[in-house]
Amino acid sequence: MGRRGAVRRAVRRRVEAVGGDAGSGRRRTDGCARAGVRARVGILRGRTSDRGMTAIEFVLLTPVLFFMIFATVQFALYFWADHVAQAAAQAGARKARAEADENPGGWRGKAGEQARSYIRQLGPSLLVDPEVKAVHPGPGTVGVEVEAGVPTILPGMRLTVHAQSQGPVERFVEDRG
Questions:
Q1: For burial by CB atoms within 10 Å, which of 4, 117, 127, 137 has the most?
Q2: Residue 147 in contact with residue 66, Cβ under 8 Å?
Q3: Strands of the chain, DSSP E
Q4: Which ranges does the record mark as transmembrane (predicted)?
């Protein structure tokens, strides 16, 4: 054991004399050695003057990230409003088809009220100023149109949805056969 200890001490003295580190656990502590190591590490990493770039990237990319989040929410609001408008138009058209033959003068009011009722149930604040119209596009065909604005979270946008549903008037015809 004495001989191994002597060899270790001799190697350690030799390494310290050269000024390097051979893994003996001791390092140079003077400022020149630290500055040289930092410079070499910076060169090896391929960057020498990138200090502070993280803050600049954060400042530039944060608004883009927020815009993408808000655009996703706006996209979801628009398609939810479109779904509500389409469901209301379909409900009104079902009522119009059922009532148009029996009540030729009053089916428009009932169909419009049915569509407005659907809007109140599914999304009362989702459709802004909904306009419901009962339509009679041709003989034996009735329907409902719904047009409304969509609330926006992005400034300067104005979005509207338009839904239409129509179908043939339902008639009961007795079988005389």
A1: 127
A2: no
A3: 128-138, 141-150, 159-168
A4: 55-80
